[in-house]
Amino acid sequence: MIAISLQSGSNGNCIYVEAGGLRLLFDAGICGADAERRLAQYGRDIRGVDAVIISHDHADHVRFAGVYQRKYKLPVYMTPQTLDVSRDRHRLGRLDNVHFFLSGGTLKFGGVSVETISTPHDGVDGSVFVVDCGQTRLGILTDLGYAFEELSAVISSLDAVFIESNYDPRMLDRGPYPEFLKRRILGPGGHLSNHDAAHLLKSGGRLKWACLAHLSEHNNNPQLALQTHRDILNNGLMLHIAGRHMATGILTV
Q: Which CATH number is 125's domain given?
């Protein structure tokens, strides 16, 4: 299995996963041209993608879903509620090939399964995902809300993971965001801090690597996120950063 974060953050999210001959995109928050170009840098053609799977209705995850379908003829998977809200809020345009799933269920693509896990993040019907090819398991865990009870068990089952590490508490407290937005980020429908993510990763005894994702532009930085994780984990786990404006390169599971 391989994975590439094409972009991660409030400016847009999209992760490519290749497993068992299957090619998947998770989220469509970056424009088609950027997704196409960044995949091509690593020898992948966006037109060969088998499915686009949407996590929730926020613009940075769904706004280009219609483009991916109309321009590249890609089938899109999302929950019914996510589609309803996204159409109202983001002007997705025509979508003719939408497949629905219910959060908590499992999508089957031949020998590859995509487990969907409901989250308390403040989207209308958000999910995170585990891709299982029968030999390895990859987690795509962003926009989580808070470290809800099931997460430790999920992470303990994974071989690699993209996990949100959104903010540093001190930077958030001293930063430029208005108080209502700070409360939202800190609240049960918000995001995980560097500390939250690192403590969750302690349960990942079989992890080969973790990629820290969805870093805030104003309330975090890559060096601080990495150092916080290294200090808390103290176990030599390979750590990567999912960039806000570039692809990670190919990560192998």
A: 3.60.15.10
